[in-house]
Design goal:
InterPro entries: P2CMN_synthase_LarB (IPR039476), PurE_dom (IPR000031)
Order of helices and strands: HHEEHEHEHEEEHEHHEHEHEH
CATH topology of the largest domain: Rossmann fold
Protein name: Nickel pincer cofactor biosynthesis protein LarB
Number of domains: 2
Length: 248
């Protein structure tokens, strides 16, 4: 529940458009809802501007089902990351509006249309193998009301492909750069733009890539100013941070 929604609720109680008891019922779970196996933070949107996101990794299908069932009562948009198709099928049984973004591994339920920003976020992928992490970032950003331009397979091994899309990249308010292998693309983009760059190392690569550690260290050691780095394969974290910057 957002601050505006709380104000509207209290105004309705004051004008006797809804009863006092109905107002209490709406507010009683505001701090959090204890489901036994999970405590859903209903206060988060009021604190930080975005409702709680469901991380499905390590959760059972039944736990995801019950969390989403409760969150639906709050009438917020719902984003569930690292979700399996089996989880989606279970959710679809009771929510026909549920969408599954297979590449991003995201279940999304849009209960209200966000107000989209005029500026946009560019999501840039070094290779096709990085697209799943890119889509996690892109879908996250779009869910929070951002326009997203996707620019895929423009890694440094064929850098002319990047230059062909440079106008679109430079037009963004913030740029997410996703790369595995040695993670060089973030430094290259960082040296070509005057916008903040959020680098996402991926676990794509051969043995010495160490499941993304090599790309992570390369990005952390970037000589290009203005490059910040999120964790390995953390497309959600990049999309969330980019949304906060884009909507300032």
């Amino acid at each position: 529940m957002s601050e505006q929604e709380i104000r509207e609720l209290l105004t309705k109680v004051k004008k006797e458009e809804i009863s006092f008891e109905e107002g209490v019922k709406a507010l009683k779970d505001l701090p959090f809802k204890d489901l036994g196996f999970a405590k859903i933070d209903n206060h988060r949107e009021l604190r930080v501007g975005y409702p709680e996101i469901i991380y499905c990794g390590g959760k059972t299908i039944e736990q995801v089902r019950e969390i989403i069932k409760f969150m639906l009562t709050k009438e917020n948009n719902i984003l569930a990351t690292r979700a399996t198709e089996e989880m989606y099928k279970e959710v679809k049984e009771f929510c026909k509006d549920a969408e599954y973004h297979k590449e991003a591994k995201i279940i999304r339920i849009m209960q209200k249309r966000p107000q989209y920003s005029d500026s946009y976020i560019a999501v840039v992928a070094a290779g096709t193998s990085d697209i799943s992490v890119c889509e996690e970032a892109a879908i996250t950003a779009e869910t929070f009301g951002n326009k997203v331009e996707r620019i895929y397979d423009v890694g440094v091994a064929g850098i002319h492909r990047l230059f062909d899309k440079l106008d679109i990249i430079r037009g963004a308010k913030v740029i997410i750069v996703v790369a595995g292998m040695e993670g060089a693309l973030a430094s290259v983009v960082g040296g070509l733009v005057d916008k903040p760059v959020i680098a996402v190392p991926t676990s794509v690569g051969y043995g010495a890539n160490f499941n993304g550690l090599a790309a992570l260290l390369s990005m952390l050691n970037s000589c290009a100013s203005g490059v910040t780095v999120v964790n390995i394969d953390n497309g959600f974290g990049a999309g969330y941070s980019a949304s906060m910057i884009n909507r300032l």
